[in-house]
């Protein structure tokens, strides 16, 4: 894979920096949902990581604009950076929703979604680490795993909303939690979007 293309390992390193930063954000979100001891501080810490992620994205785009020969198609580098950036953006939005809606406790379904988000981010990190290596089948398998996690998040979200409509009598709480569940699920959608770009890159450069 990529055997005939001059490699600039700096791009791969920057992508790995992004995914490692994303994992830290996902860990903070999971801890926020699991323990709920100081959600405002958790949200501030996630926001700091989101700013760090933006800085890495800008570094990738700046390097893209100053590199004559790139290891991947320019549009693929840009798209992958954008999709990875979206993951942490959504993690930040999830944390913001919890604070904005003055949530007092976290139901188990939200904790489950937090766990799936973290697992998805870990697999995205593993898949990105395969870029530039002779490991097409392994990268494809990781993308399939990301898709499976997204499907699981979708299932948990649907069931959570179903329970919400069955049991929640307060319409304001219903509206709040429906949006929080859907936002958590969207974070796994963003992981799947990144996986789709990775699959496309592999196919192009096989």
UniProtKB/TrEMBL annotation:
It holds the Pfam family PhoU_div. It comes from the Bacteria. PANTHER family: UPF0111 PROTEIN YKAA. Belongs to the UPF0111 family. This is Phosphate transport regulator. It comes from Pelobacter propionicus (strain DSM 2379 / NBRC 103807 / OttBd1).
